[in-house]
Amino acid sequence: MSDDQFEDDLLEERIKTKTWDPVLLRRMLLYARRYVGLVFAGSALVMVSSFLAVMPPLFIGALVDIVFNTGISRPGDYVASFLGVFLGGAEAVRALSPGDKLICFGVLFLLLRMGTFFIDWGNGYLLNTLGQKILYDIRMELFSHMHSLSLSFFHRNPVGRLVNRTTNDVGSLEKMFSVALVTVLKDCFMLTGIVTMLFIIDPLLAVVVLSVIPFMVIAALVFRKYSRVAYRKWYTAQSRLNSFMAESMSGVRVVQLFHKEKRNDEAYERIGNDFRYNFLVQRKAWAFFRPVATTLSAAGIGLVLWFVGGAVFKGRGLSTEAELTAVGAISVGVLVAYLQYAELFFNPIRDLTEKLDVIVGAMTSGERIFTILDEKRDIVDRENAILPGRFEGAVAFDDVHFEYKPSEPVLRGVSFEVKPGQSAAIVGHTGAGKTTIINLICRFYDVNGGRVLVDGKDVRDYQMAGLRRNIAVVHQDVFLFAGTIFDNIRLGEESITLEQVKAACEYVGANRFIEKLPGGYDAKVEEGGKTFSAGERQLLSFARALVFNPSVLILDEATSSIDTHTEEMIQAAMVKLTKGRTSIIIAHRLSTIQRANKILVMHKGKLAEQGNHQQLLAQKGIYHRLYQLQYSALEDTPKEGPAVNGEVPLGAVSSGAMRSLAAVTRGKAADIAEQAVAEKRGSDRSPVVPG
Amino acid sequence: MLRDLFHLLRYIKPYWRPYLWGTLMLLVVDALDTFAPKVVMWAVDHLIYVTQGGKPAVGKVEDSPLTSLMPEGFFGAGAFMGGMWFYGLLFVAVVAVNGFFRYHMSMQYSYGAVDLSHELRGRFFSHVQRLPAKYHDKSKIGEMMTLATADINASREFFWVGVLIGIDTLFYFIMVPIYMGLISWKLLLASLCTLPLIPLIVWLLTSRVEKRYDELQQQYDLLAERARESYAGAKVIKSFAQEGSEVKTFARLAREYQKRALKLAWLDSLEQPLLVLLLALADLAMVVYGGWLVIDGELSVGQFSAFFMYLIKLSGPMVGMGWVVTLYQRANVSMKRIEAVLKTPPDIVDSATPANVTRLSGGVEFRNLSFKFFDNARPALDGLSFSVEPGKTLAIVGPVGSGKSTLLNMITRLYDPPRGTVFIDGHDVKDVPLEVLRTQIGTVPQETFLFSETILQNLGLGVHGQTPDPEWLKQCARLAQVEPDILAFPKQYETMLGEKGVNLSGGQKQRVAIARAVARKPAILLLDDCLSAVDTQTEEAILSGLKEVMKERTTLIVSHRVSTVEHADEIIVLNEGKVAERGTHEQLLKKGGYYAELHAKQQLEAELSAS
Which residues of A fall within a CB distance of 8 Å from B58? Predict the structure, then answer.
C-alpha cells in the first residue's frame, strides 16, 4: 500500500460505511449491455446449473423409495417416469430387480454429476470472460477519459490516487462481475428451486419446514441490527487506531525529538484496547448468530421428523404399505429427501450475505470510478475547430486575463506579439505569471478573458492535437519514462524513425553520452531517469523537442545545478534548438536573455516592460533595476570581474546564487554555441534540423 | 514448511489458556456434531421398523436402540405420534447444546487470537517508533501501515480461523470415520477411496493456478506502473499531443492482462466444480455399494441415509483444509515481514557508559565532524569544527543540500554522529542519556508536524514530568505571535487540530511549533528554517520575543532569510558540508560572498514586491 492509497482510504472511509445504491448498481451493470449474448448464455447456464444442483436430494429420496421399496412418493414417481422414457415405462422400472435398479440409479447419478461439472466449469469461464471484457472497457474508458481531461485535473489529484482508481478500484469491480453477481444469481435460483421442490414433493410438509423461515428472518434482522451497530463501532475504533498509528509514524521524528515514545505506547494500549474490545463485541454477534441459525434449521428438521411421525401414525395400527398410502402417509424417501433439502437450503442464504458484501465493496469502488468519469472535460475542441497545417509561428497575446482560482488573478491584461522565427525571453520574479503564459499558449488552460493567438487565430479555433503537435515544450523538470532512450525521445510517435532520433541527438550533442551507454539508443531508462545527470536529462528533452520539429518552441530554462562543461553544452544546444523557429523562453541566464529578440518583463501578472536588452536598460525601469541590483551585488567581488557577459541567474532567487558565482567565470558559452552551429552547418542533412 | 509452522505456533504459547479451553470445547462441539446424524438414523430406522411391522421389504431390520432403553409403549404405534416427536426434539436439543458450546468455543479462540494480535501490533508499533530516522527515510509510512494493519490482520486470521479450522478438521477426520466405521467399515472404505484424491488434485491444481496467478500479477504491476508513469508524465504527454499513443500502449497492456486473466480463469473455474465432482464420486460409490449392502440386508435404510450425512459433513473440512493452507501461507509471509522489522535494531540508544548529566547548560561544540548518510554517499557534513557558547545565538545559512538540517539533527542524535565529534557541555553527545538530550533540547523542525489533539495538548507536548501549566503554554503562544489566531477559533485553545479538526495554515503551524519548542524551557533551541511561512513583521516580533526567553539559553537557527539571521552572534555559511564563510552580519557583507549576494537578492525581492 502506498502512502497515497492509505491517505485515500482514510479520506474515503465515509463512503465505505454507505451501503446499497440501486442507481450506482444499475450504472455498473449497464456496462454488460455490449455483451448481451454472453449475459444471456451465462444466465441460461446458471439456471441449468442451479436446476442440476437442486436435483440430488430428490434423486436420493427416489432411490430410497424405489430401490428399497419404502413407499410410493412423488420423488419416486418422477424419477421412475424419467427412467421409464429409456426403459419402457415407469412400471417397467419399478419391476426391475433391486440390483438393476441400483445400476440405473448409479448411471443416472454419474450423468447428473458429470453434467454439473462441465456446465459449472464452462459457465465459470464464460462469466470470467464477460467480467474481463467489461473490466477492460471500464479500465480503458477511465484511462482515456483521464487523458482527455485538462492538466488542472492532474494537478488536483495525486498520481497515487489516480493509479488506485485504474488498478485497485477497477479490480474490485472485477470480483463483482466475475464472482459475486453470478453467485447471487445462482443462489437466488437455488433458493427458488429448493422451495419449488419442497412444494412439489409434499406441499404440506413444505409448509412445515418453511415455518421456521419467519423465525430465521427475525433472527437475521435482530442480528443485522445489532451487528451493524457493533460493526460501526468496531470500524470507528479501527480507523481511530489506524489514524493514531499512521500519525505517529509520519511524525516519528517529532515523536523522537520530543521523547513521546513512552506516552505513545500508553496511548496505543488505550486505543488498541478499545479496538480489541469492539472487535470482540462484533465477534460475539457472529458467534451468537450462527448457533441460533443452525438450531433453527435443526428445528426445521425436527419438525419434519415429528410431522412425518404424525403422518405415518395418523391411522393408528395401519402398518401395511397399501394402508399407509391410502391415508396419505409420507414415505421414507420423502423424509430422506427433505432432510437433505433442509441442509441445502441454508447454504445459499449464508452465501448470499457474504457476496452482498463484495457487491457493496464494489459499489464504493464504482462510486470512486464514476466520480472521475463524471469529471467534465473543460478544455475541448470547438465544434468547427480546424486542423492546422504547419504554423508560421506568430504568437500573440491580446489583453489576456487568467486566474487558476476564482478571484485570484494571475494574468491581468497581458498583450504582446512574437513574430515568426523570433525569440522572446520572459523574465520576472517568482509568481509573476511566467509559467502561466506558456500554459496558455499550449492551451493547457483556457483564458478567462482576451485571446491567445497563433498565426493570427485564436488557439481555441484549432484542434488541440494539431496545435500541440506544432508546439514543443521543454519543461524545467524533465520527465523521463521507463523504457529505452529511443522511446523517450520519440515518445509514442511511431512515424519518427531511429535515424531521425539519432540526428536530433547528434544535433543537440546528446549523442556523446548516449553512445557510451550499454545498448546506445536502446539503453534502458529507469523510471524518472534517475541514472542521468540533470544536464543529460536536459539534453534528452532538447532532442525530444527537436525531433518533433515544432514551429514554436517553448522552453522553461532549468535553474538546477549543472557542472560547467554540461552548462556549455546546453547553452550551445539551446542556440541550435531555437534557430529558425519562434521560441519563447522563461529565462534565468543573462546570456539567454540578451540573445532574445524581445524581452518580456512580467511583474505581478502584468507585462511591465518589453523590448530588447539595450532598450530596456535605457528605459530605467524594472528591468534596469533587476539588472543593476544584480550587477552591484557582484561589483564587490573583486576576483570575478564584471558580469555583463556572464551567466547570472535573474529569476531564480531562492536557488543557488552560489552557483552563479562560478558561472560568471565560465563566460563565453554563447560564443561556443555559435561556433558549434557553424561547424555543423555544412555537414548536417537531418530532416529535423530547421532550415 | 513444518519448521515455519511450529515457529508460528510458538506465538500462541503465552495465550495457551483460551486456546486450551477453546480446543476442549471444540472437541465437545465436534462430538455432538458427529452424533446428530445418528439421531436421524435412529429415527428413520425406527420409522421403517414400526411402519413395516418389523419386516421391511429391503434392507436390514434394525430398530433404534432407544426403543429398548425407553419404557414400554413410549415408541411405536400405540404411542403419541409413534414417539417420533422425541427424535425431533432430541435432534434439536443436540444441535442447540452444540450451539452453546460452539459459541463459547468460538469466543475462546477469538480472545486468544485478538490478545495475540493486539500485543503483537503493540510490540511492532512501539518498536517502529524507536527506529532511527535513517530507517524511516527509507521506508514509507504506507508500507509500515500495511504491516501494522493488513499483515497483522493476516496473522490474526491464521491464529484465529486458521487454527480453529485446522483443529476442527483434525477432529473431524478422526471422529467421522470412526462413526462411519461403526456403521459399516466396508462402506467406509468404498466411499473414502476417492477422497484421498482431493488433496492431491487440489495441490496439483493450486500450484498451476498460482503460477498463472503470478503471471497475471506481473502484468498487473506493469499495468499499474504504466498508469502511474502516464499520469505523472501527463504534462509531457499533453505537450506533445501523445494521448492517443498513450491510450494505445495502455490498451495493449490491458489486453495482455485480460488474456492472462482468462488463462487463469480457465483453471480457476475448474477447481470448484472438480472438487464437487470428486465428492460426488464418493457419493456414487456410496450410492451403488451402499445400496447393494442394503439390498443384501447388511445395512439398514437409516444407516444408509446417515452415511450420506456423514459424507456431507466430511466435505466441509475437506474444502476448509485448502483454506487453512492459504491462511497459513499468508500469515507466514506476513509474520516474516513483521519479524524483519522487529529484528531491525534501534541503533540510536543510550551509551553503555553514560555521562552523569541531568541538566544541560547549552554549550555545543563540533570537532572535525564528518557525516555520510550511506557508506558510499558524498559526505553531507565535511570536517566541521566550531562551537557555540551557552546563551549565544548561532545562525546557519547555505544553499539547499548544504547540510544545515543534518547539522542540527546531529545535536539531537536524530541521526547519529561519529563518536568524538559532537559535544554538549563538554560531554560526547553519545554519552548524554537520550532522555536528557531529548527533553532539554527544543526543536522546531523544517516540516512542521502537529498531532491531531487540541492546540493546548500540542503546545504541552514537550513538557515532561508534570502536567504543563496552561498559563505558561499560553504565554509561549503569545511569544510565538500565534495567540490572536488561536483566540479566533470558537474553542480557542481547546480546538482540535488535524483531520477531524481545524487545519492551520503553514504560518500558523510554524508558530504553534515554535511555541511548543519554547514551552519545554529548553537549554538549547534548534530552529530549522521555521519562519519561512511567516511574514517579515511577525518574524521580527517572534525573534525579539525569543531573545528575551533565550537569554540564558543557546539558539541555533537555520534560515534562508537574511532578516532572520542578521542579529545572530555568529553566522556560518555552509556549502557542501563545509564552512564557506563565517562571521557577523557586517563582516560577511563586507566579505562579499554568498551571504552578501543573498542579502542583495533579498533586498531586490523586497523592492520588487513593494513596487
Answer: 67-70, 98
Name every chain A residue with its beta carbon within 8 A of the beta carbon of B280: 109, 113, 116
| Same domain for A400 and A366 | no
- Its pTM stands at 0.70
Alpha carbons B4 and A551: distance in angstroms, whole number = 66
Q: Please answer yes or no on whether B598 and A657 come within 8 Å at the CB atom.
A: yes
Q: Are the beta carbons of A162 and B608 separated by less than 8 Å? A: no
Quickly tell me which residue has 545535536 as its cell.
Answer: B411
Please tell me the predicted confidence (pLDDT) of residue A678: 38
Per the CB < 8 A criterion, the answer to whether A173 and A28 are in contact is yes
Encode pLDDT of A213-238 as tens digits: 888 888 878 877 787 777 778 778 88
Largest CA distance in chain A: 129
In this structure, is residue A512 part of a structural domain? no
d(CA A622, CA A317) in angstroms, rounded, equals 119
Measure A529 CA to nearest chain B CA, in Å. Answer: 12
Dihedral, CA of residue A381, residue A387, residue A389 and residue A392, to nearest 10: -40
**Nearest-angstrom CA–CA distance, B600 and B578:** 23
**Does residue B187 form part of some domain?**
no
What residues of chain B, 550 to 589, have a C-beta less than 8 Å from chain A? 560, 575
Closest CA to B372 of B132, B131, B134, B129: B134
Asked if A65 and A117 sit in the same domain, the reply is yes
Instruction: Enter the ipTM.
Output: 0.80
Contact residues, chain A, for B51 at CB < 8 Å? 312, 319, 324, 329
Q: Above 90 in pLDDT, residue A191?
A: no
Is B320 domain-assigned?
Answer: no
Residue A492 with chain B: CB contacts under 8 Å: 242, 244-246, 248-249
Is B56 inside any structural domain?
no
Set of chain A residues whose Cβ sits within 8 Å of the Cβ of B596: 633, 636
Kindly identify which residue of chain A lies nearest to residue B91, measuring between CA atoms: A302
Same domain as A456, residue A354: no
Tell me the pLDDT tens digit for each residue of A18-27: 556 778 888 8
pLDDT at site A653: 35
Number of domains observed in the structure of chain B? 1
- Do A156 and A79 lie in one domain? The reply is yes
Measured distance CA(A451)–CA(A130) in Å, rounded? 49
Mean pLDDT of chain B: 80
Q: Provide the CATH number for the domain around residue A430.
A: 3.40.50.300
CATH code where residue A50 lies = 1.20.1560.10
Does residue B397 carry a pLDDT above 70? yes
Q: What is the pLDDT of residues B335-352, one digit of tens each?
A: 888 888 888 888 777 777
Q: Provide DSSP, A173-223.
A: HHHIIIIIHHHHHHHHHHHHHHHHHHHHH-HHHHHHHHTTHHHHHHHHHHH
Residues B429, B420: Cα–Cα separation, whole Å: 8
| Amino acid letter, B242 | Q
Q: In this structure, is residue B181 part of a structural domain? A: no
In terms of domains, do A117 and A177 share one? yes
Residues A364 and A407 in one domain: no
Q: Is A409 helix (H, G, I), strand (E, B) or coil?
A: strand
Q: Is the pLDDT of residue B575 over 90?
A: no
**A680 has a pLDDT exceeding 60:** no
Candidates A305, A341, A208, A335; CA nearest to B88 is A305
CATH number, position B433: 3.40.50.300
Summarize pLDDT for A413-451 with one digit per residue, the tens: 888 888 888 888 888 776 677 888 888 888 888 888 888
Mean pLDDT across chain A, nearest whole number? 75
Number of Cβ within a 10 Å radius of residue B135: 18
Which B residues in the span 50-79 are in contact with A, Cβ-Cβ below 8 Å? 50-53, 56-59, 77-78
Nearest to A420, CA basis, from A68, A63, A691: A691
